Structures are given as structure tokens and as C-alpha cells.
Amino acid sequence: MNSRIRIALLQLLAREKKVNIHQKAEEYITEAANNGAKLAILPELFTTECHPPVFTEKKEDIPQGETCQLMSHLAKKHSMHIIAGSIAEKIKGSEKMKNTSAVFNPKGELVGKYTKMHSFDVDLGERMSIHESEWFEHGNKPLTFNTDVCKVGVGICIDLRFPEVSRYYTEQGCLLHVYLGAFSKERTGPAHWDVLLRARAIDNQVYVAACSPATDPTHHYVAWGHSAVVDPWGNIISQAEGEEALVYADLDMNYLKKVRGQLPVENIRRKDLYHLTYNW
């Protein structure tokens, strides 16, 4: 197995027309592939802005919908894995949706779907009162998949706040944890984004990659941007600002092993005193 992989995070603006979003995503994925990336990661709800009327208008089937069909085609064309951000997924017979990510392998095959486990139901003041559970059904299962270099675990946005999720992925051997998130520019982004990414990386001695939509002040909900990759020591090794951007990072599993060897948290862990129980 190889020890290195280049990944690319596509910090995209949500455009009014889905065809324009698809065109920009294809442009960035092609550029990333030409620059040696073997894993492309798109943002949370990248085909819509974070606003309920837009979710409802642009929701899709997974994997039969047009966005997943494009991602499957591009994964096969460029022989790479693609984590297709998250999409407002239709639920048959329901007005509600799921916030779901689809993952495609280098053959263009769907290797799995992940639906956001935790609902962002918060009241942080007049301009930050959100109740996602009114629109989205939550998921109940994690998702892992293998690349040629490492195993990967996937989460969406507020899932990042729950160390139990990342701990499970570590126990399953995931050396890269990927989060698709749209923290807010006004409140949670500047306060918590970097801190949580670094904490999950340090807690688990893994690489953490987090892909956000770009900042658009004209949107009802303004995303923070600042897509980033953190190494197992907690260093931010690559990061965007707010604008639309393509962010690269080279991950080295030998470096990860070195960090774990120097600070052997797993050997020190008191498994005789505590453990987590999962119900999925």
C-alpha cells in the first residue's frame, strides 16, 4: 500500500442554477486530477445554499439524480475517489429530506452513502435560530471506505462536535476523517471551526479534512469557508479563506505513524476503565 495521497477540497459557491454549480465542480475536479489528487472532496449542500426553500426546490435522488451521475462519471474519468459533498436527498412519500453524502470510487461505483447523524437545532440569537430537524431526517449509520493509501471516515457539519463519531472511525482504522461542513460566518465559524478540526486530529492522531461552501454575503445563511486540512499533530497544513478555492494537501501515513510512535496515546489509553458503545 502507498503511504502518500494528495487530496483536494473544492470550496464552492452555491450558484442559482444547478448547471452552473456542476460546471464549476467539474472544472475544479478536472484541475485537481491533473495536479495529482486522488481524492476530491466537495462541501455540504453544495448544490443549494443553506436555505429551506432552496433545499426543497433542488432536492435529488441518490444516486440516480443528476449530481451523483456527474460525480460517478468524473470519478471514473479521472480514476479517483470523490466524496460528493452532501445533497438534499428526496425521501419517498415525505416532504422532509436527508442531508446525504455519496462516495464514488475510481471505477465510478457508489461505495456508500452517509446521512448526517445530528440535527443542527440551535438558538444563538435573532440571526442564528436554526432547526434542521424540521427539514431533514437524521441518519443512523457511519460510513467508511478504503483508498489505496488509507481508510476514510465521513461526517457532516455538526457531527464534528461529537468526539464519539471520530473515535468510532479511529477504532475502525480510519487515518483520514472527512467532514463536510457549513459553519456560519457570523457565529460558529470563527469561534469553533479551527478548534474542532484540530481537536479531532489531536484526539485521534489522524488527518482531518473539512470542506465548506465558500462565503457569499448575499445568501440567507452565510458560510464561513476556510476549508482546511489538519495533520495528526494538530497543525493546519492547508487552508482557504472565504472565497471560492481549490485546496490541496499531501498526506503522509509514515508521518502519522511517527506521531503515534512518539506519543503513543493508544498504548496509554485505559481500556480496562472505559469504552464507548455504539448502536448502529
Describe this structure in words.
- This protein has 280 residues and is an alpha/beta fold.
- The chain has a single domain (4-264), classed as Carbon-nitrogen hydrolase (Nitrilase/N-carbamoyl-D-aminoacid amidohydrolase), CATH 3.60.110.
- Helix content is 28%, strand content 27%.
- The chain contains 7 helices and 16 strands.
- The chain has helices at 18-34, 52-58, 66-78, 163-171, 188-204, 253-262, 265-268, and strands spanning 4-11, 39-41, 81-83, 87-90, 97-104, 110-115, 121-123, 129-131, 136-137, 144-146, 151-156, 174-180, 207-211, 228-230, 236-239, 245-252.
- Strands 1, 2, 3, 4, 5, 6, 9 and 16 form an 8-stranded mixed beta sheet that branches. Strands 10-11-12-13-14-15 form a 6-stranded mixed beta sheet, covered by helices on one side.
- Helix 1 packs parallel to helix 3.
- The longest helix is centred in the N-terminal third of the chain and has 17 residues, at 18-34.
- The radius of gyration is 18 Å and the shape is globular.
- It comes from Crassostrea virginica (Eastern oyster).
- One of its GO terms (cellular component) is mitochondrion.
- Its EC number is 3.5.1.3.
Structural classification: alpha/beta
Q: Give the biggest sheet.
A: 8 strands, mixed
Total domains, how many? Answer: 1
Q: Identify the overall geometry.
A: globular
* Overall CATH architecture: 4-Layer Sandwich
The top-level CATH class is Alpha Beta
- CATH topology grouping: Nitrilase/N-carbamoyl-D-aminoacid amidohydrolase
Output mean pLDDT: 96
Which regions are unreliable across 5 or more consecutive residues at pLDDT < 50? Answer: none
Give the CATH superfamily: Carbon-nitrogen hydrolase
Q: Beta-strand level of the residues, as a percent range? A: 25-35%
- Number of separate helices: 7
GO molecular function: omega-amidase activity
Catalytic activity: 2-oxoglutaramate + H2O = 2-oxoglutarate + NH4(+); 2-oxosuccinamate + H2O = oxaloacetate + NH4(+)
GO cellular component, one term: mitochondrion
Organism: Crassostrea virginica
